[in-house]
Amino acid sequence: MSSLRRRRAGMPGVAVVVPAILAVASLLASCGATDIPTPRRTVTVTVDAPSTAPAGTPTATTTQVPTSAPTSTDVPTALAVGRLRGAPRSFDEARARLDAARPAASVSDRFRSPSGNIVCRRSTDSGLAACEVEKGRIDPPLPSICPAGGPSDIGRIELGPKGALPVCNSDTIRTGGEPELGYGARTPPSGTNACLSESFGVTCIDEASRHGFFLARDTFTTF
């Protein structure tokens, strides 16, 4: 199971830098070459170093939203698939519905719909949220959504700082024992995200990024 922010314990911090490109460009320039192709943009990859805190030192804990293999970043964050059945079509419409709903005190970082078909996880200190269906997985509207060699249909939507993305997951965020979020109820205020349960599906939004999604059996929309 991957995560929107992956940590690998026990590995020192590593940064990938390519200084040789600048040296070659300088050498060619000194020889009179003028048609030097623009170097490719490099990506610096940093792996967190292991904690140096003494054994037994208490650490802060936050709710993490697990993910599977990351969906391509080329996937648009505004998609609509299936019959939608009353799904909100924009962030403003979704927020208006959540504002009008009653808050539920019995749920926090995870919940299920009354039917049990949809389960969700939220990070209570950020805009991260994810919901998945047990039955009614969705065919991808774009071939780039499902990576080769894995599941060919969408079972989960993940909401992060850059928007909501469909995931062709083979893992699950379902753990059993999730408290029920009744129809017409929304999650209590926590972090920048919130979710609403309705008889036709679940809607989640992030106030910070102004993105969100709706998910139900055989249908979803992202905005």
How would you describe this structure to a colleague?
The protein has 223 residues and is mainly β. It has one domain (66-222). The chain has helices at 20-30, 91-100; strands spanning 2-3, 66-67, 79-81, 102-103, 110-112, 118-122, 129-133, 156-160, 163-167, 185-186, 193-198, 201-206, 211-216, 219-222. A seven-stranded mixed beta sheet has the order 3-14-13-12-11-10-4, covered by helices on one side. A five-stranded antiparallel beta sheet has the order 5-6-7-8-9, with no helix packed on it. A two-stranded antiparallel ribbon has the order 1-2. A hairpin with a 6-residue loop joins β10 (185-186) and β11 (193-198). The longest helix has 11 residues, at 20-30.
List keywords for this structure.
single chain; 7-stranded mixed beta sheet; mainly beta; 2 helices
